[in-house]
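Lab notebook, bench 4. Still working through the backlog of constructs that have no structural model yet. Next entry is a single chain of 258 residues. Request: give me the structure tokens for it.
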Amino acid sequence: MKTATLAIVALSGAILGGETTLHGTLTPPAQIRKVALLDRAQRQEMAPREVRVVETTGDFDATSGAFSFRNLKPDAPYDLFVELNDGTKIEGVDLRPRMDDSAPFSDDGRTMIEKHFYGMKQFCNENRILAIEANGKSAAVLVELCRTTEFHAGGDNVIWRIERWDYAEQFGTWQIESSNTVLRRFRLRGDEWARWRWYFAPAWGGLKARGEAYALKLPDLATAPGRYPVVKPPEGVGEAAAKGRKKHEEIPEKDAGW
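Model written out:
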């Protein structure tokens, strides 16, 4: 009777405290070298060449593809991170729009967002939209910002940033929200950066500890957004939006940060 009572108390504590284990399967597992969770809510750590995202390690079975992460924060979102045997990296990104809306995202809305993004005056000289997840009122946009031309650091350094930009529909037009979310920031040699294979998987973003197991699959890298394949701006968008300013008119690095 005492044992049963203790079990009930322990179970009640687990329920009140919230689920703290995130588990499931990831297939096919043969290509996978490393599996981790990214906690983007924690303060990022500045390092000489990157701003590091906090990683949580767990258990991974390379035969079955089963993974498990324990002692997580209840109800906190995590993004799955995977490194393949050939060095390719794939990480989850949460692209759920901030506002719910049953209306679909229109072609006009996409065009407005693209014209705004590609027409902006920015420190980075090679920028592209990688993915848009949206409804009729809210859009989450995954963007890549690259500085490949020389700046004060000199040499062959490149700055590479991955960010989430949020837009909202207001009175028939799409406006950018006041703050962007930085997902990745690196400063590294251009020849190293050119060899990177780094992809993003919206289906792996915003995962939470829960009793039910996740059933995840490696994305098709031929179509997944990321460093490769190259995603070019829609034809005419960049040129039309940039009309009236220099091709690579840039803001000073001291105003841009990295």
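Notes after review: The CA atoms of residues 48 and 101 lie 42 Å apart. Residues 1-16, 229-234, 236-256 have pLDDT under 50 and may be disordered. Flag for follow-up if needed.
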